[in-house]
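Comment thread on ticket #2218

A.B. wrote:
> Attaching the input chain for the structure job we discussed in standup.
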Amino acid sequence: MFGLLWPSARPLAARLAARALVPGERMLEIGCGLGLASLAAHRAGADVTASDSHPLAGRFLRANLRLNDLIALPYRHGPWAVNAHVPDGETALSGRFELLFGSDLLYERDDSGRLAGFIGRHAAPRSEVWIVDPNRGNRPPFTRRMAQQGFTLAEERIQGPDYRGRWLVYQRD
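C.D. wrote:
> Ran it. Output below, let me know if you need it in another format.
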């Protein structure tokens, strides 16, 4: 199911597929890549939008939707930087979401706080952010930036047969 499975996306997709739907809740996948987590939420009936800044991500997502016999779901170009260029033919991400999620997003140092800023611009006043982190070491500065925006963190270790990392849940009320 869902084509190629990225190890860090598996725990996220599994939780989204098992999660009860919340009426009116809007979801956003950040850095969707192949769109595994978005596909799982979409298949479960969620109102989900996939986003990424890679020029081929939308094409990958549409191919995965076809492979899995799923109807279209919204894809938006979602670079983390403010006022970033949106390629021709792409639609820029806009709006606010109650649940934002992504896997392996903390893969580089983000001294400017672009990711936390992106989340702050797109998270509803009351929202949750789920991130699967493979322990790359960039979690503490990101968590500090999220706290500056009113988010608190709950985390747990993920230790499966093919993936080890942390499940990060940031919540703002």
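A.B. wrote:
> Thanks. Noting for the ticket: The chain is about 30% helix and 30% strand.
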